[in-house]
């Protein structure tokens, strides 16, 4: 077996690598961005992506994307990936989230049961240029700010705040010891406390909403899911049928070409296969739970149409539930433009990327193949104190504050597996890069609106089918 030699450049060599990158690619390179003349048709990209998705759920996906330019942006990671593949970059790679828009950040419980704030979606994770994630984040703040009715100046401020926070945080991580970077994290309660301190009278309602949102997140666990998602029939607990959002496996077996008993046996085997990917101690904990039921459950915006399931397990008794989410993993949208993942199993790609980037990850994070050939999944807890920011309520000050929090968080996620010294040396101490990335973000938000209009027209003309309100 060949052992890979790991290079260990000096601090000065790492700084020089960042400075050399400036000469190859000036920090102002993103200013004046324009879409390529041969840019792929955005509607065509979505249609191609839909081919591998559940046909009955594709209209639901379109309906969710149709709500606004912001929901369209959330579902359009494949579209932006094609555009990002053509932007100038410094050649400084990190582990990318791959879909780092502002709604893919949020609160969740760490294994120590504290509520942390971090990135929380890694379906598209892959190594690549740090600019890809930062561009997706900055542009999302422009799109979301416009969605909230903020004017052009205010929308640009939020994007600039996210980039400035990223640059400042990366400089801080460049000066930290390796393990200090690895252990860095943000406490969700502290974020809310700082964000709501000394707020104006007109913003106190938003402060109360934020505090309530954090408190509500602490109640979101498997026990809460048990009351919302299950029922008892003939003395046995099972997942409630609520199509098309929740459809139990017992109602899908025939559609997938299996007898109910055959499907149940296959699901049991998949559970065992997934369990084998967990560290030994987590595996022993999971072995204490018995498999009870399984159902398809629609989630998100961009993920709609890929297969997503929930599994109900039971521990000591019926009041000791564990809900696991089982999400289909496909090739990252970035793999159309960057080197393929080193992991042949897409579920493992997602899990390993998440572990690299998050300050703390779910103890039940693992992966498995699907029952059917060519299907791959990753597993995690369905609800573990998960909470999201109330973006639609944000005024300019709140949006800017949240942009700073997300910028810091993204920098920390990149600094863990990446080189914060080289990236910080490239970014420098001036706002030159900030201005260029903000200019790109505003221009890309304009492009997103044009793409949304084309998408809406495709629905109105009957080219695409949409089911709204689901």
Describe the structure.
By secondary structure, the chain is α+β, with helices and mostly antiparallel strands. The chain folds into two domains: 11-217 and 392-460, no CATH class; 222-381, no CATH class. Helices cover 46% and strands 14% of the residues. The strands form four sheets. Strands 8-9-10-11-13-12 form a six-stranded antiparallel β-sheet, sandwiched between helices. A three-stranded antiparallel β-sheet has the order 2-3-5. It is globular, with a radius of gyration of 22 Å. The termini are far apart. The model has no long low-confidence stretch (mean pLDDT 92).
What order do the SSEs take from the amino end to the carboxyl end, as H and E? HHHHHEEEEHHHEHHHEEEHHEEEHEEHHH
Number of beta-strand segments: 13
CA-to-CA gap between the ends? 52 Å
Q: What's the story with the biggest beta sheet? A: 6 strands, antiparallel
Mean pLDDT comes to 92
Catalogue the unreliable spans.
none
Numbering strands along the chain, what is their spatial order in the largest sheet?
8-9-10-11-13-12
Number of helices: 17
- Provide the gyration radius in Å: 22 Å
Structural class category: alpha+beta
Shape: globular
Strand content: 5-15%
Tally of structural domains: 2
């Amino acid at each position: 077996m060949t052992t890979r030699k790991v290079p260990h450049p000096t601090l000065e060599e790492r700084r020089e690598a960042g400075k050399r990158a400036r000469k190859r690619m000036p920090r102002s390179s993103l200013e004046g961005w324009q879409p390529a003349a041969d840019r792929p048709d955005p509607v065509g990209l979505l249609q191609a992506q839909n081919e591998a998705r559940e046909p009955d759920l594709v209209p639901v996906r379109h309906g969710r994307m149709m709500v606004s330019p912001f929901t369209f942006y959330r579902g359009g990671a494949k579209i932006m990936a094609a555009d990002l593949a053509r932007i100038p970059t410094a050649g400084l790679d990190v582990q990318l989230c791959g879909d780092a828009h502002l709604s893919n950040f949020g609160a969740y419980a760490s294994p120590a049961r504290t509520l942390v704030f971090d990135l929380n979606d890694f379906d598209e994770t892959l190594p690549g240029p740090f600019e890809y994630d930062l561009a997706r984040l900055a542009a999302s703040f422009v799109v979301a700010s416009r969605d909230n009715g903020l004017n052009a100046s205010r929308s640009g401020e939020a994007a600039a705040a996210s980039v400035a926070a990223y640059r400042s945080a990366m400089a801080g991580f460049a000066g930290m010891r390796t393990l200090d970077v690895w252990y860095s994290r943000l406490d969700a309660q502290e974020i809310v406390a700082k964000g709501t301190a000394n707020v104006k009278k007109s913003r106190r309602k938003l402060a109360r909403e934020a505090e309530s949102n954090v408190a509500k997140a602490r109640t979101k666990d498997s026990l809460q899911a048990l009351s919302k998602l299950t029922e008892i029939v003939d003395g046995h607990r099972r997942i409630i049928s609520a199509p098309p959002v929740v459809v139990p496996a017992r109602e899908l077996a025939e559609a997938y070409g299996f007898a109910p008993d055959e499907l149940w046996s296959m699901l049991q085997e998949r559970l065992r296969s997934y369990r084998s990917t967990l560290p030994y101690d987590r595996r022993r904990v999971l072995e204490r739970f018995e498999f009870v039921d399984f159902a398809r459950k629609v989630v998100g915006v961009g993920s709609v149409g890929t297969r997503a399931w929930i599994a109900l397990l039971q521990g000591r008794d019926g009041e000791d539930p564990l809900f696991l989410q089982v999400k289909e993993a496909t090739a990252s949208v970035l793999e159309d433009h960057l080197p393929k993942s080193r992991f042949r199993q897409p579920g493992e790609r997602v899990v390993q990327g998440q572990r690299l980037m998050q300050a703390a990850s779910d103890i039940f994070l693992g992966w498995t193949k699907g029952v059917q050939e060519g299907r791959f999944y990753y597993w995690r807890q369905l609800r573990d104190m998960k909470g999201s920011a109330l973006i639609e309520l944000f005024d300019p000050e709140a949006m800017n504050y949240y942009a700073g929090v997300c910028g810091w968080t993204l920098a920390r996620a990149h600094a863990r597996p990446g080189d914060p010294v080289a990236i910080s040396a490239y970014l420098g101490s001036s706002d030159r890069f900030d201005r260029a990335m903000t200019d790109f973000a505003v221009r890309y938000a304009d492009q997103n609106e044009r793409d949304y209009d084309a998408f809406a027209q495709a629905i109105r003309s009957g080219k695409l089918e949409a089911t709204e309100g689901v």
